[in-house]
Design a protein that fits this description.
homodimer, 465 residues, alpha/beta, Rossmann fold, 3 domains, six-stranded parallel sheet, 20 strands
Chain lengths: 465, 465
Amino acid sequence: MDMEELFNPESIAIVGASAKPGKIGYSIMRNLVEYGYEGSIYPINIKGGEMTIKDRKFKVYKSVLDVPGKIDMAVVAVPAAHVPQVVDECGRKGVKVLPIISSGFGELGEEGKRIEQQLVEKARGYGMRVIGPNIFGVVYTPSKLNATFGPTDIIPGKLAFISQSGALGIALMGWTILEKIGLSALVSIGNKSDVDDADLLDYLEKDKNTEAILIYMEGIKDGRKFMQSAKRVSRKKPIVVIKAGRSERGARAVASHTGSLAGADRIYTAAFEQTGVLRAFSISEAFDWGRALSNLPEPQGDNVVIITNGGGVGVMATDACEEEGLKLYDNLEELKVFANYMPPFGSYKNPVDLTGMATAAEYEGALKTALAHPEMHAVVVLCCQTAILDAKDLADVLINAYTESGRKKPLVVAMVGGTEFREAINVLNENGIPTYPEPERAIGSIAALYRWHNWKTKEQVWRRP
Amino acid sequence: MDMEELFNPESIAIVGASAKPGKIGYSIMRNLVEYGYEGSIYPINIKGGEMTIKDRKFKVYKSVLDVPGKIDMAVVAVPAAHVPQVVDECGRKGVKVLPIISSGFGELGEEGKRIEQQLVEKARGYGMRVIGPNIFGVVYTPSKLNATFGPTDIIPGKLAFISQSGALGIALMGWTILEKIGLSALVSIGNKSDVDDADLLDYLEKDKNTEAILIYMEGIKDGRKFMQSAKRVSRKKPIVVIKAGRSERGARAVASHTGSLAGADRIYTAAFEQTGVLRAFSISEAFDWGRALSNLPEPQGDNVVIITNGGGVGVMATDACEEEGLKLYDNLEELKVFANYMPPFGSYKNPVDLTGMATAAEYEGALKTALAHPEMHAVVVLCCQTAILDAKDLADVLINAYTESGRKKPLVVAMVGGTEFREAINVLNENGIPTYPEPERAIGSIAALYRWHNWKTKEQVWRRP
């Protein structure tokens, strides 16, 4: 069954729509309107009448059955007790996908699970797919769709994010905005009564707007199904997973939180390794990797070159490279070319140290050289804030040099410093160059790219170092 | 020999002072004036005359020998070739400490090392201590002293930071401002020709304004001296070290960068473990720990309580606790008290899940309970951004509850979300509550406190997990 209507619906009904700020049914309406969704929007509320959302007037229907046109997606935000009737009406209306925001089902225990299963069976009988229940909605930036009650201004990009946790997922929507992480899709799957991780992987595999997939996962119900999908999709697009409940006590906490069985963690570890899934151990690590994986091309070889203006960060990056199993290019004859961009006391050994005298011009020369050199396959640019290096200039020359080169090699940047540097980091990230505030995070991210690339090309299990 | 004059000089000469923005000799003058140093400032420049810095007029002396009053500290920022003469004049003037900003000495090789050693011998002959050369200066916030050419607005606090690397150190000055990390002192020690890490540890051990010490280190010359000092100081104040050059290739890069021998890394590891020094593996980790160690009291027992509004982050924190060897309190009878601050579907098992329904009021009740309970020894507060939780309100109640309790137990906070949450993180940090944007960093930081505490009280080696 296809899920095209989850990402590209031509019309959406909000069941439980409200004009009252603070209500979930209001936030979803507001996000749909503000984010610029161009299809038809039908607010549904038993009270009927009209409502005005952000200066746009809507007729309110008492039931989806009263809507004159077709409805592709119905977002359900009514109390749990009313959900069964809504599912029935949506089915009769011919709705295709049903994100159920409402909570109060499987997460409460056995009785809730039973009701939840009945809803799914009813929906399936009508040919509908259910997302959730117990979710915060769905975003698909290419169709300007933000049908969530989270923040509005999701940044368009090429990373798809799937979250089992509602609270964390909605908090992470804010995180992606703050950190300038561009998303193609964001799907909250909550109790996974019907649509699960594997279904979404199958869709996203073919989605031309998605280059990498990040999943926050607490547990999987159908392990075999997930592994089949993950293994196939990983060959085309990298998958990053944060799987909470690694520890024994953490696994017990998962069980009490979602009611899903966290399972022995080593089974997950083995499954991820076999299917090429990259397992991150924290939120920032997952998004660091997702940022690199969704923006960068695959490397055409193992030789990494580090360009720096500070010996200290160069050493830190070297440590991280060795720990991550990355290979630093060390053909001194070829590296000599970098001597053109440094004073006599610089070092063209890799890490290439342009010294604290480097301005944007020296970085530009060195980066262009590395991007053009056939034996240099990936580039790491590091810089420490100095009095003579203008952060904005540096961001500009890096963006221009990388774009002019056709963005054919992986490039990551780390900029260590204060406010101006943090602003430059944002500019670089907004322009698709993965940039971090410290060397280890840049190296960790390009290492994730290599890890996936090596799994994919050599089908070998590359364990987390 | 005492180094009181490095931190509390009554008068400072800037040799190589300049009124021209962009010059190092200008930046140091500007920082001294802007940061509010209240002692005498004497600009020294061969040209003589007068100079105006930020509306303040100074008579410029051609030599320190021409200055009428005494000079405690002379900051030397003239080309390397002129340094020997300056050292001589400073000695004759009776200067006590001599931070030599100038580069072009030991970092260039054997000949440079020889000249450097001669300078030190000459200075010692006069009873002067040399800091550097090849440094960016010194900050001591209690005496409003910022004698660096880095950023001005260093935030006062209780963490002392010692940096061997100039470029990285100056970039990290900006980092501390951005991340709201309060410093007592910041000393750039560069080539360590005279004053080294151990000398500064000895001073900072007794400094009542310093609660924790962070060192960025590339190599140590006198290992025995460092170990003696570190072991003694660690019993009173925690020491965090970032020691670059962990890997074989990193160690070689250090040698080419500073000319100092990085040494076999396992020797450093053993030395740190034996002396209670906490070794961090990245900049953010070091400052995360430094933030907690400089602000928090020691725990009076092992029982950690986690209070959260999201199951997902609770599980992530639980994983991190188990990996870090922290003990989650699990006396269910006592934990039941938290049921007062949650809806019926919340969970008072540790992690205590107030659920997504929690407002600042529920957090306040739960935190006060934990802070008052005799069996709960350390508290971790986690929260995910939700529609009903006001970040500013939350920050206010946490600060008030913690202050009212007398700040007798360690408390760390993690707030996951967007812009408003990031602002609340800053507010909490400005108020001395170590707060982070994700659970793992909060747990890692309180774990560093426990690691130090356990080393100190049990003298046991607690290895990095």
